[in-house]
Specification:
The strands form 3 sheets. The protein has a 7-stranded mixed β-sheet, sandwiched between helices. It contains 13 helices and 11 strands. It is an alpha/beta fold. It is globular, with a radius of gyration of 20 Å. Bound molecules: nicotinamide-adenine-dinucleotide and glycine. Pathway: Metabolic intermediate biosynthesis; chorismate biosynthesis; chorismate from D-erythrose 4-phosphate and phosphoenolpyruvate: step 2/7.
């Protein structure tokens, strides 16, 4: 097992990465102070890992409840969030109750938001079970839900007590979901570490095959990078926005098609291709680097051609992005691997990228 720490002073926490961690009582024990625990999971993950987690918690002698949510991005909303509050209140959960998010990013984001709100804040632990949630969403304390008009628009910054990333859980992950996770790995390498990006290019096939060693390295390095960005800029005053590379276009794809139509990681994969195209048009990125990015996104079995929502609709949706200020869209652009630039882009260049994105990669 490897441990990466997120250095946030009195809110610092460990990210444990390894195999067969869900069953390890000792990893949970230091982070559960109260008498009760509520596991939040969904209809897919509960039958796979629910018993394993409850068995790990049993020796701690806690009162353990489980709430099972419907599965999918389409349920990342107020109605589903309320099911968590219903369960907490029914179980008479108190201020020391610990929530445990067992599942992917949808479960983690909603559980974290519920933890931030319930009694104005109770502790929570992330047990991410998708590659995407292990490399990205479980780390850094962004929690929330979607609104029909914009992705992740309602939420809170709220850090977990610990992240327990069990690589073994990825064995049951469908290939399409694995690919969605690889998208965030590619993003992390592209924005922050040219050497890691090269490693991804060389190992993308091993990641596609779900090889444990490759996955462990990808999760560890992605978490190290994300932990250092979050430690430097927890509430996205500046630097943290680089983690949104590909997301401005990607969130527009997700909201525009209807949540759940494209997976978040698929939208990010295509969104990175679009952001790289825009970077080339603005004279920031060289064509060879753009082509490398497109190649690795394609090799990860991710889409490189954007859905034809119409340019006007893309722009409308991008204006709702959290990075937009006074309606002006901010893009995360690439200068070279490991180096980004955050800024605006002339309308003509954005229109040209949108026109190119739906016909070629
Ligand atoms: P997800 O939570 O929907 O999980 C994907 C699918 O895999 C679901 O059907 C889930 O039930 C299933 N699943 C989970 N673990 C499994 C396992 N081990 N075996 C088999 N099936 C399993 O999606 P995701 O890709 O994990 O997360 C996407 C969400 O994360 C989006 O809502 C996105 O906005 C959010 N996100 C948040 C952050 C953040 O910083 N908070 C960062 C990136 C993404
Ligand atoms: N996934 C973007 C962030 O955590 O800031």
């Amino acid at each position: 097992m490897i441990t990466v720490n997120v250095e946030l002073g009195d809110r610092a926490y460990p990210i444990h990465v390894g195999t067969d961690l869900i069953g390890q009582t000792a990893l949970f024990a230091p982070h559960i102070a109260g008498k009760s625990v509520t596991i939040v999971t969904n209809t897919v993950v509960e039958p796979l890992y629910g018993d394993q987690l409850r068995a790990a918690l049993a020796p701690l002698g806690k009162d353990v409840h489980t709430v099972v949510l419907p599965d999918g991005e389409a349920y990342k909303n107020w109605e589903t969030l309320n099911l968590i509050f219903d369960a907490l209140l029914t179980a008479r959960a108190d201020r020391k109750t610990t929530l445990i998010a067992l599942g992917g990013g949808v479960t983690g984001d909603m559980t974290g938001f519920a933890a931030a709100c319930y009694m104005r804040g109770v502790p929570f632990i992330q047990v991410p079970t998708t590659l995407l949630s292990q490399v990205d969403s479980s780390v850094g304390g962004k929690t929330g839900i979607n609104h029909p008009l914009g992705k992740n628009m309602i939420g809170a910054f709220y850090q977990p007590q610990a992240v327990i990333a069990d690589i073994g859980a990825l064995r049951t992950l469908p290939a399409r979901e694995l690919a969605a996770g690889v998208a965030e790995v590619i993003k992390t390498g592209a924005i922050a570490d040219a050497e890691f990006f090269e490693w991804i290019e060389a190992n993308v096939a091993a990641l596609n095959r779900c090889e444990p060693e490759a996955l462990a390295h990808a999760v560890k390095r992605s978490c190290e990078i994300k932990a250092s960005v979050v430690a430097a800029d927890e509430r996205e005053g500046g630097l943290r926005a680089i983690l949104n590379f590909g997301h401005t276009f990607g969130h527009a794809i997700e909201a525009g098609l209807g949540y759940g139509e494209w997976l978040h990681g698929e939208a990010v994969g295509c969104g990175m291709v679009m952001a790289a195209d825009l970077s080339v048009r603005l004279g920031m990125l060289d064509e060879a680097s753009r082509a490398r990015l497109v190649r690795v996104v394609k090799a990860a079995n991710l889409p490189i051609v954007a859905p034809a929502l119409g340019a006007e609709r893309y722009v409308d949706l991008m204006q709702v992005d959290k990075k937009a200020e006074g309606g002006a869209i901010k893009f995360i652009l690439l200068e070279r691997f490991g180096q980004t630039h955050i800024g605006r882009a002339p309308d003509e260049a954005v229109q040209a990228t949108l026109a190119a994105a739906v016909v070629k990669g």
